[in-house]
Design a protein that fits this description.
This protein is an alpha/beta fold and about 250 residues long. The protein contains 10 helices and 7 strands.
Length: about 250
């Protein structure tokens, strides 16, 4: 599952669950924290905005035990001086720099201060956080939107070219290769599926029952194969369902 701007905005409002984000892009967090004030509990510096406390382990050149002490001071109680008393959100960037003993102490702090604070971790890889901490968090992937759109757009344009022609042995082989190559680039295909649904949904020449049937097939395949390790196969099945439903509507694709 991927982090979107709408989901991030909603999360900042509710603050109802710990979250672990992994990926190289931090633009959503940087955009929110812009204009934040600088706070400090010696010798740790952090940014504050709307009861959101941002720490960066990458820039931490002191002992990480000071980080735990700073978090304990912040999470002692809710901010009663704020206009709207709400749960404090602790955002820890570059959590892959956190030592195992620090992660263990933070885990204990999460369990003991759940009424006053919620944690959001960000790391470059999914292995940045130890499994016991990940088990307490909602895990989302953060992706670069420019890279995502270019790859998905390239695959969709190639798919549209095949949809305008009869399905042959040669085209089946190339479509199968495209599905496997897509999963070499990424471990998920939700963004590509969204693009297919959005593009076909915006096509005014397609009848609504056809669009609904396509969406039902994609939804059903996602449900049946959500735990499958052979993801390219069910993506290939989705593409074949497009050929089935769009057999008589290829002219205006």
């Amino acid at each position: 599952m991927f982090l979107t701007k709408e989901l991030w905005t909603r999360y900042l409002q509710l603050r109802n669950h710990h979250m672990f984000l992994y990926g190289q892009d931090t633009s959503l967090i940087d955009e929110f924290i812009e204009g934040a004030t600088l706070g400090q509990t010696t010798p740790i510096q952090y940014h504050i905005k709307q009861d959101v406390y941002l720490f960066s382990c990458q820039m931490m050149d002191t002992k990480q035990s000071h980080l735990v002490h700073s978090l304990q001071d912040i999470l002692t109680a809710p901010n009663f001086y704020s206009e709207n008393i709400q749960t404090k959100l602790i955002v820890i960037l570059h959590c892959n720099y956190m030592k195992p003993q620090t992660q263990h102490k933070v885990k204990s702090l999460m369990d003991s201060s759940y009424q006053s604070g919620i944690f959001c971790f960000h790391g470059s890889k999914q292995q940045s956080l130890e499994p016991t901490l990940q088990a307490r968090c909602l895990i989302l992937q953060v992706r670069s939107h420019s890279q995502e759109s270019s790859v998905d757009r390239l695959c969709y344009e190639r798919l549209r070219k095949y949809l305008k022609q009869p399905l042959t042995k040669h085209s089946i082989t190339e479509l199968r290769e495209m599905c496997y190559m897509y999963y070499l680039h990424d471990s998920q295909s939700e963004s590509f599926q969204r693009m297919i649904v959005a593009e076909l949904g915006a096509n005014l020449y397609l009848p609504n029952p056809i669009k609904i049937s396509i969406l039902e097939d994609i939804t059903k395949l996602n449900h049946l194969y959500q735990y499958s390790y052979r993801k390219p196969i069910f993506l290939e099945a989705m593409i074949y369902s497009l050929f089935k439903h769009l057999e008589h509507y290829t002219y205006n694709l």
